[in-house]
Specification:
The complex is a heterodimer. Chain A is α/β, with parallel strands linked by helices. In chain A, the strands form three sheets. In chain A, strands 1-5-6-9-10-11-12 form a seven-stranded parallel β-sheet. Chain A has a three-stranded antiparallel β-sheet with strand order 2-3-4, with no helix packed on it. Chain A has a two-stranded antiparallel sheet with strand order 7-8. Helix content of chain A is 42%, strand content 13%. Chain A is globular. Chain A has one domain: Alpha-Beta Barrel (TIM Barrel), CATH 3.20.20. By secondary structure, chain B is of the alpha/beta class. Chain B folds into two domains: 86 residues, Methionine synthase domain (Methyltransferase, Methionine Synthase (B12-binding Domains), Chain A, domain 1, Orthogonal Bundle); 121 residues, Rossmann fold. Helices cover 60% and strands 13% of the residues of chain B. Chain B is built from nine helices and five strands. A five-stranded parallel β-sheet of chain B has the order 2-1-3-4-5, with helices on both faces. In chain B, strand 4, helix 8 and strand 5 form a beta-alpha-beta unit. The chains are: A alpha/beta, B alpha/beta. The interface between A and B is medium-sized, with 36 and 29 residues.
Chain lengths: 363, 220
């Protein structure tokens, strides 16, 4: 790459995601690490925080804790032992998995699955995720991350669709969409209003990247038709992005959807998305996307947590990183990361190989 | 009733199911039965072809998950009328019996539910074991429910490995030989299916139905 001066992590992230040359591509460890894997990494490294240990370029930031204490029991009924309820009223039910704290291995109890009237939806007690007091800690956290020279990611994932189906149940919500139900309209509008408030607070906080996301892809294509997505979700997602840009026009907009969402890319660019994540190599060709959209879109992720990281060798991992830098990294626009949570099957050596291949260092 | 007179009644039902029109499917069913169409003929001539076509459209990217859900809902509206009539005279002629579930530790069921809908639409009798299903539960389904095929689903690389544990449990219990085992889910590949000794793999719900039919035809 042309620029040889060593950049700070934040400079690297900002430049790369604005599609400028950097000393190397930025990287991080994706959204998290499964409990068993985290314990194993801590044991191997003797370090508490893998992000610190491996020198990841970003840190994630969430709103501060709520002061509300809503009782959702009338919506959830009796939950199995060991269940928890979050501030949205979603019941989290443990499974028979031995890795019980792993967020992907729990069941949901949807509080609005049995809702039958518009009033049920309109009166549902939503959280105060947009309350100003919850962003005082966000501003402090962004400053702290910046002082360390790192880039701050403000987390706004499960923006609309996923949040809505967590409350309503996925099949129920998709049937509501198909039926043109006013219940879906009200649910989505209420969530969108909260997200607009959050987006404004996040933009004002000085965070470098706002991470939006709703999983709308399967690995074979879209979960719903592009027409349905455009009717129900695109305008609302656009409003939440516009709200952030209204406060800070240059804030970077990151959009996450698992699976193959290629059919939506022009729409996403159209509403102001700068960065697509996670670009799963199992179902998307990052090099082809770079050729087609690379002048308007950056790519974040691309290293498969379903294929190479768990089942490849360290050499396979290094090869995947090198291929990505060659085919997607030219002129910036590439952020390397595992495509999702690092599952327990990923060998430690593969993580080390990933980081070394990105940074060009040998441990 | 001759075929010419029958076909508009059957195609009205088939179209209602494909359009996801539950009310239309129910009234088309009533109308056909009222005109003396045999209930089994409705299943074979309208419901199964409708869900086959829905599956084909899903495989081709013309249908997405919501379209399959509304078609399955319309199918159920018709089945609610037809199935009791068939039960009165000794039951539906099932194409085979499948026990299906998402393996232990895994709660993901959208894909599994689509397979259930298409198998039921395709004339299979389905025992849906749900999610987070331990190997012992699959074993007891084979022992107690007299199934021809067991379907295992998983979304994660972590839980995918439970498929192997489930097959092993079936072997240990001595029931592996009496059923065919099919596997699917995002991280699952044909190679993985071969490695763990499954009898088949499908990469989508319509392909799973085709696979189940092939296995039944080959004497599952």
């Amino acid at each position: 790459m042309a620029t040889r001066t060593v950049m700070t992590s934040r400079e690297r992230v900002l430049a790369a995601m604005r599609r400028q040359e950097t000393d190397r591509p930025p990287f991080d460890l994706s959204f998290g690490i499964a409990t068993a894997q985290l314990a194993s990494i801590r044991a191997r490294t003797g370090a508490d925080d893998p992000w610190d240990y491996f020198g990841a370029d970003t840190r994630m930031i969430w709103p501060g804790p709520t002061r509300l204490d809503t009782d959702f029991s009338r919506y959830l009924g009796r939950l199995p032992r060991g269940s928890t309820v979050d501030e949205w009223g979603l019941g989290h039910v443990p499974t028979a998995s031995t890795d019980a704290d792993h967020a992907h291995l729990e069941g949901f109890r949807h509080p609005l699955e049995e809702a039958e009237s518009l009033a049920d939806i309109a009166q549902y007690p939503l959280p105060d995720v947009d309350a100003a007091y919850r962003y005082e800690s966000v501003r402090a956290a962004v400053e702290a991350v910046h002082r360390r020279g790192l880039a701050a990611m403000a987390m706004l994932e499960c923006t609309i669709f996923e949040r809505a189906w967590y409350l309503r149940g996925m099949e129920r919500l998709l049937l509501d969409f198909s039926d043109g139900s006013a219940m879906a309209t009200v649910l989505l509008d209420r969530i969108t209003a909260l997200r607009i408030g959050q987006a404004r607070h996040y933009a004002a906080s000085g965070a470098d990247v706002i991470c939006y996301g709703d999983d709308v892809g399967t690995q074979r294509g879209l979960l719903m038709s592009a027409a349905m997505w455009r009717t129900w979700l695109k305008p609302r997602l656009a409003a939440t992005i516009a709200a952030a840009r209204d406060v800070r026009p240059d804030v970077l907009v990151f959009y996450h959807s698992d699976g193959n969402v290629e059919a939506l890319i022009p729409d996403l660019i159209d509403i102001g998305v700068d960065i697509l994540n996670p670009v799963q190599p199992e179902c998307l060709d990052a090099a082809a996307l770079k050729r087609q959209y690379g002048s308007r879109l950056s790519f974040w992720g691309t290293i498969g947590t379903q294929s190479t990281l768990p089942f490849g060798s360290p050499d396979d991992v290094r090869r995947e990183v090198r291929t990505r830098i060659e085919t997607v990294g030219a002129g910036g626009g590439l952020f390397l990361a595992p495509t999702h949570v690092i599952e327990p099957e990923v060998p430690f050596e593969n993580l080390v190989a990933f980081v070394e291949a990105v940074t060009g260092e040998r441990g | 009733m001759d075929t010419d007179a029958l076909s508009p009644l059957l195609s009205a039902l088939r179209d209602a199911v494909l359009d996801g029109d539950a009310r239309g499917a129910a009234s088309a069913t009533e109308r056909a039965l009222g005109q003396g169409v045999d209930p089994q003929r409705l299943v074979d001539g309208a419901l199964i072809p409708a869900m086959d076509e829905a599956g084909r459209r899903f495989e081709n990217g013309e249908f997405f998950v919501p379209e399959l859900l509304v078609s399955a809902r319309a199918l159920k509206a018709s089945q609610a009328i037809v199935t009791p009539l068939l039960a009165q005279r000794g039951g539906v002629v099932a194409r085979g019996r499948v026990a299906i579930g998402t393996v232990k530790g895994d709660m993901h069921d959208i894909g599994k539910n689509l397979v259930v809908a298409l198998l039921q639409g395709g004339g299979f009798d389905v025992v849906d074991l749900g999610t987070d299903v331990p190997p012992t539960r699959f074993v007891s389904a084979v022992t107690n429910d007299r199934v021809d095929i067991v379907g295992l689903s998983a979304l994660l690389t972590t839980t995918m490995l439970q498929m192997k544990a489930t097959l092993k449990a079936m072997e240990t219990a001595g029931v592996r030989g009496s059923v065919k085992v099919i596997v699917g889910g995002a991280p699952v590949t044909q190679r993985f299916a071969d490695e763990i000794g499954a009898d088949g793999y499908a990469d989508n719900a319509a392909a799973a139905l085709a696979l189940a039919r092939r296995l039944m035809a080959s004497g599952a």
